[in-house]
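hi! just following up on the protien thing from before. the input was this:
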Amino acid sequence: MHLRRLAAAALLTVLGLAASSSHAASDPAWYQVRPGDNLTLIARAFGTSVDRLRRVNGLTDDTIQPGQRIEITEPLTGAGSPQWRPPYQGRAPVVSEFGPYEQDRIILPRTGVAVASSVGSEVMVPATGVVRFLAPMEDLGVVAIIEHAQGYHTVLRPLDLSSVPWQPGQCVLGGDLFGHVAAPPDGPLEPYLHLELRRDSKAIPPDRLIR
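and the predicted 3d structure came back as:
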C-alpha cells in the first residue's frame, strides 16, 4: 500500500508537470454561451478579441444564443492575472500542509494541501480558465486540472465524476460550481479536498486558494 501511494503521488506530480508544459495557452478551447453573455464579455474573460471570435466561429454579426458553442483559439493569452478564490465554501482546517515531509524515514514532496471537507461538499472553480484534464487515477480518485492565465494551473481531487458537468477543453468561469467532493480513495481517511497551484511547471504554495 505504501509503495502504491508513493507511486500515485509521483504520478500526480508528473501529471501536473505535464499539464503545465503541454497544455500551453495556444491550445484551443470552447465556451458554452450563458444567458446574458455577449462576445465582448467572452473575449474579455478569456483574453481574446471579438474580431477573432467572429472569424473563428464564422459569425457575420455579434448575435449569439444561450447554449451555443463558441470556439476559442489561443485562450487566456491576453488575459490578466487570475482573480483567485477558495474552491470551497466556508472555512476548513488544513489537514495536510504544502512542502516536503518525512514518512518511513523517506523525505517525500507534497505538492499541495488538503483541507477537511465532507463528502458531497461543493467544489468551485478557483479562477477563470480551461479544463485540461478530468479523469480517475489509481489511489487518487478523480483528478481535475484547470489551466489559468499567466502560466497557472490548479489541481483538484478527489471529485465525484458524476457531479462534474464540464469536459476537457471547456472554458469555466471563476466561482462556477465544478463538482462535489468524493469519498477518500486512499484508505479509511477523513474526507478531504486536495488543492494544488502550479506556475510554469512548478508547484507553489497554494495560499491564495485557502481561507
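Residues 82-209 form a domain with the Glucose Permease (Domain IIA) fold (CATH 2.70.70.10).
Residues 2-22 form the longest helix (21 residues).
cheers
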